[in-house]
Amino acid sequence: MAHAYEWWQTGVVYQIYPRSFMDSNGDGVGDLVGINQRLDYLKWLGIDAIWLSPIYPSPMADFGYDIANYTDIEPLFGTLNDFDALLHKVHQQNMKLILDFVPNHTSDEHPWFVESRSSRESSKRDWYIWHDPAADGGPPNNWTSFFGGSAWQFDEISGQYYLHMFDVKQPDLNWRNPVVKEAMYNVLRFWLDRGVDGFRVDVIWMMIKDAQFRDNPNRPEWKPGDPPYARQEGRYTEDQSEVHEIIREMRALVDSYGERVFIGEIYLPVPRLMSYYGEFLDEVHLPFNFQFIELSAWNAKAIRTCVDTYEKALPEGAWPNWVLGNHDRSRIASRVGKEQSRIAQMLLLTLRGTPTCYYGDELGMQNAIVPHEMMHDPQGKDNPIHSRDPQRSPMQWNSQPGAGFVKPGIASWLPLSEDYQQVNVQSEQNDASSHLIFTKTLLTLRRAIPALTIGSYTSVDGMPEECFVYVREQEGKRYLIALNCSAEEQKLSLAHIKQGNILLSTLLDRNSQVDLNSFSLRANEGCLIEIAD
Ligand code: NOJ
C-alpha cells in the first residue's frame, strides 16, 4: 500500500518575521493586514505553509519573544479579527499557518509575573523560578543568560532572584508546576480551536532546568567578544531528561486536533537532537535541523558530511528537515556569498525532508547594515557584532523609497538593506535570470517531481573534491543533483549513468541533454538533472 504523506512532509515552510514583512498602516512596522495583502505573492512563489514569529502583545524587549498575553494580538500587528481574516485567507489559498509558541518564558509585564513577583506568598510565586541569594548575597549559581551576564535578577521587594535565560524582561516559567502546564496547554487549545495548523516551539529543549541548580561548566575557549550564548555548556539548563515528558504531553494535545504540525527549535548536536523525535516518534514532528546554519566552513566535503551524518542518525520513520536561515542568524547570502547562495537554495529544496525558507532568502537578500544607534536587539547590547537586527531588515518588494515595505517618506523600524533597488520582488519577477525566478522554478519542479519530496537520498562517491553530488529516486525515476561549491569549473564523470536532461541550472541558462560520462559544472553552478537511462 502506498504510504500517505502529511502536508508538512511534502510542503515547504516559509518563515515570516512579522515586523519586517509588510507595513499596511504607515507606522514603519509590519503587520497582519500587510501579510494578508502579500499572500498572493507567497502563493505565486509556491510555498505551502507560513510560520509567523510571535504576534502576541509584547513590550518588545525581545521583539515579541517576550509575551505579555498569550491569547491576543499585539496592537502593532493588528487585532484578533485581522488574525482570523488572515487565517481564513491562508486556508482559502490552500496554505497552512503555523504560530510561534514561546513556553520557556513570559514577559516580566505578563500579569502572571506581576502577580508572582508581588510577594513570596503570592499564589503564582511558584509559576516562575525564584531562588534565595547565594551565601555572599550574589546570584544563586553561575548560569549565564543567552544575551550576556548572569541569568539571575535580584528582586528588591522580595529579596530573591528570578531566573531569566534570555533578557532580564523574560522571566523563565517553572514547568515543574502542573498549574503552569495547564495554563500553557490552554494557550495551545485557544489557537488550535481558532484553526491554526501547528506550532514552532521556542527553545523547547530548555524548558526544564536542573532541580539542584548546579553550576554549568564554562567553555574554556570562550573569550569576551564571542557570542554570549556560547559562554557556557548548558549542562544543567538545557536538554534535561524531564523535558521529554512535557513535549509528549504537548504533542498528544496537538495530535488530538488532527493534521497539525509540531516543530521544535533545538540547537543540539545531531545525536542529542534525534532524541526529540521521541522514542515512539511521539515528541516533535520536526526538531529543527540547524546543521547548515552551524556549519563553520561552506565546502562540498563539509556539506556532504553534514547531510550524510544527519541522514544516518535519523531514527526509523523520523522525517528530516533543513533550514538555511532564520531571524537569529546571519542570512545565507551574507554567510556564503551571493553565488553560493543559489547552491544553498538548490540544496535546501532538493534534499530529503521539509525545507524552511526565511523570508527574503528567495530574493538573495543580504544582511542590512544597521548603524549602532539604530540597533534594537538585546543580544547586541554588549557587542553590536552579535546583534540580530541585520538579518531582520524589511522585505524588499520594489525599488521605490521604502522598498514597498513602507510608503515612500515613512521610516521603517530597521533600515533597508542597501541593495534593495536591485534585489526586490518586482525587479526580480521581471528578470528571467534572477534569484527569485531561480527559487520559484526550483519550487515548481519540487512540487512536480515526487522523487524530490518523498524519494530516497544517496550521495555519490568519486566526485571532484569541490562538488557535492547526490541522487534522489522514487519508483524508478532518478534525479541527480550536482553542486559545484567552488568558484572554478569542475569536470565530473559518472561512469554508470550516461544520459541526463538538465531541468535546472542555478545559472538558469541551460536546459539540455548532457552526457554524464563527461560533464562540466561552471563556477558556482549547480544542476538538477533527470537521469535518462
Ligand atoms: C529563540 C528565538 O528564535 C529568539 O529570537 C529569541 O530571542 C529566543 N528564543 C528567546 O525567546
From TrEMBL:
<protein>
    <submittedName>
        <fullName>Alpha-amylase</fullName>
    </submittedName>
</protein>
<dbReference type="InterPro" id="IPR045857">
    <property type="entry name" value="O16G_dom_2"/>
</dbReference>
<dbReference type="InterPro" id="IPR017853">
    <property type="entry name" value="GH"/>
</dbReference>
<dbReference type="GO" id="GO:0004556">
    <property type="term" value="F:alpha-amylase activity"/>
</dbReference>
<dbReference type="InterPro" id="IPR006047">
    <property type="entry name" value="GH13_cat_dom"/>
</dbReference>
<dbReference type="GO" id="GO:0009313">
    <property type="term" value="P:oligosaccharide catabolic process"/>
</dbReference>
<feature type="domain" description="Glycosyl hydrolase family 13 catalytic">
    <location>
        <begin position="15"/>
        <end position="392"/>
    </location>
</feature>
<dbReference type="InterPro" id="IPR013780">
    <property type="entry name" value="Glyco_hydro_b"/>
</dbReference>
<keyword id="KW-0378">Hydrolase</keyword>
<feature type="compositionally biased region" description="Basic and acidic residues">
    <location>
        <begin position="378"/>
        <end position="391"/>
    </location>
</feature>
<dbReference type="Pfam" id="PF00128">
    <property type="entry name" value="Alpha-amylase"/>
</dbReference>
<feature type="region of interest" description="Disordered">
    <location>
        <begin position="378"/>
        <end position="400"/>
    </location>
</feature>
<comment type="similarity">
    <text>Belongs to the glycosyl hydrolase 13 family.</text>
</comment>
<keyword id="KW-0326">Glycosidase</keyword>
